[in-house]
Write a structure and sequence with these properties.
Layout (H helix, E strand, L loop, with lengths): L3 H7 L2 H4 L6 H7 L4 H12 L8 H10 L1
Helix pairs in contact: 3-4, 4-5
């Protein structure tokens, strides 16, 4: 059984909680390149990561 620290690193709640698939798995399955993968990552966590606003994550996605 993994520790809380491992869970935070390997399966962060802002990507996993309440979801069937993690963004990293979707990115791999869809064979997205670095930029598209980052855009998907930021859109998927928009408003879910502590101290990050939805707008902040969407601006990051737009960057890619």
């Amino acid at each position: 059984m993994g520790t809380q620290r491992e869970s935070v690193i390997e399966h962060p709640a802002h990507y996993c909680e309440g979801r069937k698939y993690e963004p990293k798995d979707v990115i791999r399955d869809w064979e997205l390149n670095f930029n598209l993968g980052n855009a998907v990552k930021y859109v998927s966590r928009a408003g879910r990561k502590e101290n990050n606003s939805i707008l902040q994550d969407l601006k990051k996605a737009k960057k890619y």
